[in-house]
Each structure stands twice: as C-alpha cells, then as structure tokens.
Design goal:
This protein has 374 residues and is of the alpha/beta class. The protein contains 13 helices and eleven strands.
C-alpha cells in the first residue's frame, strides 16, 4: 500500500466556541473546503466516512452526513474508535479504494462540546465511579502517575510538552488558544486530577475538519494540485479498561507504529516532523517511546530541552495540537501533517520530507498511525 493512496484535499472550520453551529453544518463547511482544496467536483466523491460526534452520538449519523452533503455513496458510515477513528477511517478509505469499492473518499468529523454538551467527557466510568473516577482525566492521571513512579518522569518534563504546543499555537492564527506558556505558569496552574494540571489537558472545542482520499493514479489524472502520499498506516487497540491492564505504561501504539513503519519502509530516524495526539501531556512521551523514537522510560527526557519545539531535533504538533490549536480529536493533526509535506504550514519545518501522525481514543484505548511524505 506504500504510496498507492494520497490525501488530495483538506479543510476545516474555525476552532473554539461556535455558537449555533451543529456538527452537520460544520462537516458540510469543512468538506466544501476540502473539495475546493483538491480541485475536484463533489459529485466525484463516492465514499463518505465519518467519525461520529462524541458529545452527541446519533444513530445512522453517517447517512445524515451523506444527505447533508448531497451524496449517495457506495461506501459510507460511522467508525467508532474515539480519537483514533480519523486515521482509522483514512486507512479504511485507502483499502476500499485499492479493493475497487470506491474511487474518492471523504473522511470527516465535527463536534460542538464547547457550545453544546460535554457530558460524555465528564461522565462517571462504570463501577469505578464509586472510587471517584469521573471524567476522562482520571484515567490519564493514573497512567501518568505510574509512568512517574516507574521511570522518574517529572512534571517539568510534561511541562515541556505543553510549552512546545503553546509556543506553536501562539504563532498559529487559526489556533483557539494563542497564549504562550512558561514553566513557572505551567507548574502553578490548578490541579485537575493529580498529577495532571490545567495546562496538561486538551482544550474543549467546537469545530469540523475533512480530508479527501484517492489513489495516486487518480490524483495524477485529475491533476490534483498538491497530493500528499500515504506511505504507511497501522492500528492497535489496547481495548481493556485501565483497571484491567497488566501494564499501564505501554499501549498498542507499539503495534500500530510498527505496522506503519513496516509499510512505509522507514524507521523513526527517517521522520522529520511529528503530529502526536496530545489530549494530555503524558500521551506524547509515551507515544514516542512506543513508536521507538526512544527507549521505554526515556520519553520525558526526549521531549525536554526544546527538542520537540520548532527548530528542535523533532518538531512536534507544529500548529499547536490539542493543547493549543483545538481539542477536537485528531483530524487537525492529519491536516497539519499534510501542510508540512506541502511546504505550506504556518510554522514550516525546513526540508521536511516525512511526517508521522498519531491518533488515539478513550484512555489510550485505541491507537492509529499514519506516515505521510512529499
């Protein structure tokens, strides 16, 4: 599958609090922008693949999206992997195109938890709620605490992730949060669930995004302006709840990343820029460890000293990530990867030829990896 499919177009709405906007209306806007970016006719799209809105899941939502777009697709529906669904759907689109089930797919997502309901982010987690486990941060806090206990990871090292994201977001005119962060401010931010504090946590955001996937051959025939080849992809699902996992500091990102690197014929040393899912700061060092950028337990040291900032050895989340650009789960990271490969990013990494993108869902429950090139 190396290089057989491309991302031909990308689009997104504004991010932040978008009063009066529904997920459907934001998807339509984002898809229209992606179609325009690809320079194709909407009628050429024959697959509509959707991550459902987390704040208000709806039955047959994929078909509602197709109707709103005015498309009767050959392939369509909703994929449920939480934040990993976006890359999961891009992978499924590439496979469906290779199998001849469709020719051009749109992968899209939108949600409005900022102006609407965020109940699903703060709900109690089953029987564990009697022990105080309410909301998503609690599970990540347990994982962060275990990583600290096992490997000596520090808050200052987690702070390096937040500081890098906020530095990049401050330079991004589309970012929801454009306020730089220093270490003293980070350390003084209020606790959410110890050891995670406010600036360790992703934003809550309204917004929508979409990408167009087609074969490299079709992109040539349609004279697409700037198609970005997909070199590799992979998935891995931890699946078990946090309380049932025998080890908290390793996830199936190991499997997902290994498959993507194998397909791409690359190793971590070949990657120039990374867009790593940063719903909480702890996910970045752990994902880098699981992908093989450093050994297990060395992620905290790896992200420190400006290494992951623009100008560093491995710039990460160059548009601000979930901590600064938008908390919407994952597709914006793919879009920034595409822009880096096109040479069109706001904070462009010079001479970047490869980009790895990670998505995850739940509490490090699902994982998907994508490797892009020029």
């Amino acid at each position: 599958m190396r290089g057989k499919a491309v991302i031909a177009g990308v689009g997104h709405t504004r991010f932040g609090k978008l009063e009066g906007r529904t997920p459907l209306s934001m998807i339509v806007e984002a898809v229209a922008m992606a179609v325009g970016d690809a320079g194709i006719d909407k009628e050429a799209i024959d697959a509509v693949m959707v991550k459902f809105p987390t704040s208000k899941p709806e039955f047959m939502f994929g078909q509602q999206v197709a109707e709103a777009l005015g498309i009767q697709p050959k392939v369509g529906g909703v994929w449920d992997q939480g934040g990993a669904a976006n890359i999961g759907l891009i992978s499924q689109a590439a496979l469906a195109i290779e199998a001849g089930l469709c020719e051009i797919a749109v992968v899209c997502f939108a949600d409005n938890p900022k102006s609407g309901s965020r109940h699903n982010y703060s709900r109690p987690h089953g029987a564990d709620a009697i022990h105080g486990w309410y909301g998503t941060p609690a599970g990540y806090a347990m994982i962060a605490r275990r990583h600290m206990a096992d490997f000596g990871t520090t808050r200052e090292q987690l702070g390096a992730v937040a500081i890098a994201a906020r530095r990049h977001g401050a330079a991004n005119p589309n970012a929801q949060l454009r306020r730089p962060l220093d270490l003293d401010t980070y350390l003084a931010s209020p606790a959410i669930v110890t050891p995670l504090h406010r600036d360790d946590c992703a934003l809550v955001s309204d917004g929508g995004a979409a990408v167009i996937v087609m074969s490299a051959e079709r992109a040539r025939k349609l004279q697409v302006r700037a198609p970005v080849p997909i070199l590799g992809f992979g998935q891995g699902n931890t699946s078990w709840s946090v309380a049932q996992r025998p080890v908290l500091t390793t996830t199936q990102a190991v499997v997902s990343g290994a498959k993507a690197f194998e397909m791409a014929g690359l190793t971590p040393k070949d990657i120039d820029v990374a867009q790593i899912y940063d719903c909480f700061t702890i996910t970045v060092p752990m994902t880098l460890e699981d992908y093989g950028f450093c050994r297990k337990g060395e992620g905290g040291a790896f992200v420190s000293g400006g290494r992951i900032e623009i100008g560093g050895a491995l710039p990460i989340n160059t548009s601000g990530g979930l901590l600064s650009e938008t908390g919407m789960p994952g597709l914006q990271l793919v879009i920034e990867g595409v822009r880096q490969m096109r040479g069109e990013a706001n904070l462009q990494v010079p001479h970047a030829k490869t980009c790895i993108v990670s998505n995850q869902g739940g509490v490090m429950t699902t994982h998907a990896t994508l490797i892009l090139s020029q």
